[in-house]
Give the backbone structure.
Amino acid sequence: MELKDFNDIEKATQKGRREFFRLGSGLLFVVGIMIYTALGIGVTGPQGIMLVVAAMIGGYMAMNIGANDVANNVGPAVGSHAITMTGAIIIAGIFEVAGALIAGGEVVSTIRGGIINPASIADSNRFIWVMTSALLAGAVWLNIATAVGAPVSTTHSIVGAVLGAGVAAGGMGAANWNTMGSIAASWVVSPVLGGAVAAGFLFWIKRAITYKADMVVAAQKTVPILIGLMAFSFSTYLILKGLNKVWKVEFTTACAIGAVIGIATWLLMSASVRRRATHLSNDKESINSLFTVPLIFAAALLSFAHGANDVANAIGPLAAIADTVIHGQVSGKAGIPLWIMLVGALGIALGLALYGPKLIRTVGSEITELDQMRAFCIAMSAALTVIVASQMGLPVSSTHIALGGVFGVGFLREFIKSSYSQMIEEIKEHHLGADKDNVEAFLNKFAKASVQDKREMLDQLKARTAQANLSKYDRKQMRKVYRHELVKRSAAFRIAAAWIITVPASALMAAMLYFMIFGIVHA
């Protein structure tokens, strides 16, 4: 066998080795949890075995959260090339763990979000089976979604799983259907709000900066305002959502603190942008560079808040099982020991490192093309929408908001490009028979004009020139030609389908697992 044959074999097996390494690392983490829980907790008997099994499933769930949900925090920054994949994983991993351990809270509700009534499942053994089934079903569904490249809400996954297992154990009356109605509403509310806010910020940036003749001068005025507003949004978001377990602050107080930080950031950025302006060229690439550092901070802060809030999706049911096993009864609240917090925090970080890049690429580059300005708008949407919606009492999902923001900026770009193509065609229609140089001169002037001047030029053109005689069918065909599809439709449909079926799929899976466990125990 020749040397090149060995090289070919090595290349062919390289992917398999990477997959084996990822699988092996995950298994080592789960086995480590099993050993610690079996030897370190000191609980024996059938319920002790169930605690060991639940702890292993909790670690598996945490890894799936890291593989799927964290992509929404860092995906836009990676897709816009503000940060490398490796840098994003390191930053997100550190801040996810910090958020979980520092601000993850000491107590979580044992029945996630009030989905089922604890009184309907008073038997401790049956309650343990419900929580174990929910954990496993939520984790398996996240694993499936990650495998097909669909970012889904981990909160919805575990909520659906708790619902399914709870109904299987306690009947239809065990479920809190009002809460479920709110969750169903969030399927629509979250992406629509996220998309609208992100598109609004992008439109503002285009009108205030990139549509101006001198973009550098426009950026000196607008960029500090945008970054100051970002500092306000993220400070308020972090105080309300990331630190609320360790520092209880009223909404107005949090906004006041955020406003002070925002104003200070605006003043600092005004001076910084003025200094950098002398080295900037009058193009979009230079303006984009002004958003790079803010995007890195956004990724870090979103990861911290995510770790503080969503770690409960992995360890909430596990904490409930541990509390029930140790105290021998079902309680409404469950304290979270440090070892359970570590299972959730380290599991999220490990899942992100091993399997996160796939979903990060999906969010960052496979739905629509992102640059720093667009990624900035998505990050702003993720923070601002959660704050506003929470105070209005609207049910929202941070995952759906972030993905809605990606779709929002993509569809806005489609609309703008299609509209511009139609305007250019209108100019050409009204110059039929004119000298080519005159047409080119008008087009050059039109391209450099502001939005208001463009509108006035088109109105004047229509007023003095007869419109080309095109039929309705011709105009319809022309619109199809000018339509620029800048959002990948297959990705949009795949993700939307996964969102819709997350709760029913995880619920059905959890119910089946519960009946399986029940059947095995009573066989």
